[in-house]
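Final report, closing paragraph on structural work. Over the funding period we assembled a curated collection of sequence-structure pairs, and we close with a single example.
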Amino acid sequence: MRTLDLLRALASRRALVLAGAALAPGCQFAAPCPIDPLPPITPEVLQHFRLAAAPVASDAPNGAPLEPIHVLGQSARADREGVGAASAEIELEDVLRSVETHFPLVLAALEEVSIAEGQLLQSRGNFDTRLNAQGAFDLEGFYESDVFDFGVEQPLEFWGMNFSGGYRIGRGDFAVYDGKAKTNKDGEARLGVTLPLLQGRAIDSRRVALWRARLAREQAEPIVLFKRIEATRKAADSYWKWVGAGRKREIALRLLALAEDRTTQIELAVREGLLAPINLVENERLIVDRRQSLLRAERGVQQAALALSLYWRDARGQPTLPADGALPYEFPTPRDVAEVFVPGHEDLALARRPEVRVLELEIARLELELGLAENDILPRLDLGVFGSQDYGGAANTPDDKDPFELTALLRFQLPIQRSLARGKVRETQAKIAKLTREAQFLGDSVRNDVRDVVSALNQSYQRIGQSRENVRLAAQLAEAERVQLRGGQSDLLRVNLREQQAALAAQSLVEVLEEHFRALAEYRAVVGLPYDEVVAGGAIGSGAPAGAQR
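Its predicted structure, as stored:
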C-alpha cells in the first residue's frame, strides 16, 4: 500500500463506520468493517531470508579457504584451544526459537490479546439479556392488594432497538388511580419494542463501546507483533555480536600463540649469533602484551554472552549463559544482496509494519468517536410500541380486562445549544487530522528505514570483498616478514608490526561480517517480518538445530 493509498483508506474509514448493511455487505449493520489482514508471507519472500552455514569463501587465487582466525598463520596450540565443535554450535534459529517460546517480554505482550478479549467481553455486557422482578404487598391499610411483576429486556445492535416482555399479576383492592395495576385472574402478558428514529439509530454509546473493544482486540495483535519483531531483532543483534566477539578472541589467541611458538626459534637464532639477545626480551614483551589483548578479547566474549543470555533461555524460561563450546566457528557465507532484497520491499513494509496498523486502527477508533459525537447533535426521537393481553376471568365483573391493549409511544428530546456534542465533533475532527498527518510521516519514515538498511546491506557486502583482500595481503606480508626473521634479515619490531596489521585486517573482516548480518536482521525487522515466520518457512539454517535448548 502506497502512502497516498494509505491516506485514502484512512479518510474513507468514517464512511465504513457509519455505513449500513446494504452499503457494507459482510459487516454488521453500522459496525466498522475489519481492517484488511496482513498480507501473507509467501515462500518466495521467505527464500530471500535464507542463510547458508558454510565458512566464508576465499578470494585467494589457489582457491584455499580464507578464514579470519587463520590469517596469522597456523598454530597447533591455537587449533587445539580454538572453538570448532560444530555439533555443539548455537545457531541463530535456536536463539530465535528461544525468544518466541520463553522471552518474558514476548509472553507479556501476548497477554495484551487476553486483556483485549476481556475488555471485549465486558463491552458485550451492554447487550446482555436483563431479567427483573418486583413484588408489592399491602399488608395493612384501606386498600389491600398484591402485585408481582416479572420482566425481560433485550437490547440489540440492529438499529439500536430494544425488545421487552414480561408477566404481571395484580390481586386485591386498588384505588381508582391504581386501576392499571389490576389484572385478570391469570395475569397479564406484555411485549414491546422501542426504536430510535434519529439520535441513536445508526450509532449509540453501547454499540460504540462494543465496536471500540473489537478494534482494541484487532489492535492487540500488531502490538504483539511489534514486541516480537523487536525482541527477535535485538536477539539477533546480540547473537552476531557474540559470534563476532568469539572470532576476535580467536584472533587474539592466534596472535599470542605466534609469539609463544617463536620463543624456541629465537633462542636458537641467538645461540647461533643470527639475532641479538635483546630479541628474547622483545619477544617476551610481545607475549605479555598479547596476553593482555587476549584478556580484553575474553572480556568482550563474556559481555556478549551475558547480553545474549537474556534471549537464550532454558525450558523454564531462565537466562542461560551460552557455553564457549557453543560458539559458531565461522560466520555464514554472505549472499549477494541482490538475492536478499524482496521485490517491492517498501510497499511490503507499509503493509506489514505493526506501527502502521496500530495507527490505522487508532484512526478508526476516532472515527467511531466522531460518529457518536455527530449522532449526539441529532434530536432524540424514539418510537415505542407495546401490547398486552390479560388472561383468565375478571377478578371483578366491572373490571374485566380481556380486550387486547396496544399502546404507541413517541418521545422527543433536544438540547437547544448542543455545545457538548459540537465541541466533541470539533475536537475529534482535529484528532483525526492530527493522526492522518502522523500516518503520512510514518509512511515516509518506514520507506526511509527500508532505504537506509538497504544502503547498509549494500555497503557492508561490498566492504566484505575489500576486507577479504586486505586480510590476504596482510597475511602474505606477515608471513614474508617471519621468513626474513628466520633468515636473520628482519627483526621482531617489523614482524610485530606486520602481525598487528594482519590482526587488524582480520578484526576488520570480522566487524564487517558482524555488521552485515546485523543489518540483515534489521532488514527483516523494517519490512515487518517476524523471525518465527522465516524459521517456519525453513529459511534459516541448512538442517536441524543442534544447540537449541528445549
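The mean pLDDT is 79. Strands lie at 130-137, 145-155, 162-172, 188-196, 380-390, 405-413. We thank the funder for supporting this effort.
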